[in-house]
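User: Hello! I'm new to structural biology and keep hearing that structure can be predicted from sequence alone. Could you demonstrate with AraC family transcriptional regulator? Please show me the input and the output so I can see what each looks like.

Assistant: Of course. The first part below is the input, the amino acid sequence of AraC family transcriptional regulator. The second part is the output, the predicted structure written as tokens.
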Amino acid sequence: MALRTRKVSKVPQDLTKAPYYQAALSMNDLTVIETCTHTEGKKGTMLLEDHLLLFVLDGKYTVRFGDQEFTVRKNEMVLLQKSIVVEFEKSGEEESNYLLNYMMFFLKEELITEFIKMADLQNAYPAAIVPISISAVNDRLVSYIESLKPYFKEPEQVEDGLVKVKLLELLFDVANANEKFLFQFFMLKRKERKNITEVIEENITNPVSLNDLAYLSGRSLSSFKRDFQAIYNTSPLQWIRNRRLDMAKELLTHSSLSVTDACFSTGFENAAHFSKVFKERFGYSPSSLK
């Protein structure tokens, strides 16, 4: 069983901190475009606060959401909707020394709405929103990516207006390359609350806070707690802790995982705290099961 990374990075804001940051373009002091180069072995978990469009230029970028896994390879792009938590793994091919080179675009709903209005697009048929979509990159998009590279040499000299124009150009090129992505844009700008049960089940083993879960469900913290209480008849903090403890007990009983690994695999971030609450719930320490 693969262990999850305990740190959840909120992106794009955390990506401008070491060790993630490579080069970035900003608009209104917010990171909107990043270019990154890594070698084999980088893993992590991120909570998407904006819609993310990622292009792989070399290597491969693997994304896991729930029980689904998606691998994005050279000259492919992936669109991820915001308000989800995904695991990622960065790797490359042996013949290219496991180099991974990619570019990320963070798309706010306001920008997507402006693009749809500017392009005078009509939603011709209903489409279901897909959390993660992958498509090939055509020559037009390859040329677009190349056109951005000079801007990263002096990012502080690039005006907000120019960054916005380049983002709108990107959306036109993406829509031209893949109609499926075009109709996903219509869905991305819809603001709908998510089902609380689905959000909890998708993130039960992710070390996310109640604030994060409220955000992922499209609610304020107070609304999330109220709606959770109505469904589960208990507080979210208590219910989630007990569910994680039950899962940890199953792992310790039926697998070879250590106490520390079971702790981290079920969303706890501190082994000492895990052992304490485990004993409070079951009456014996987790180490006694091993």
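User: So the tokens describe the shape?

Assistant: Right, they're a compact way of writing down the 3D structure. Reading them back into a model, for example: Residues 250 and 262 are 9 Å apart (CA to CA).
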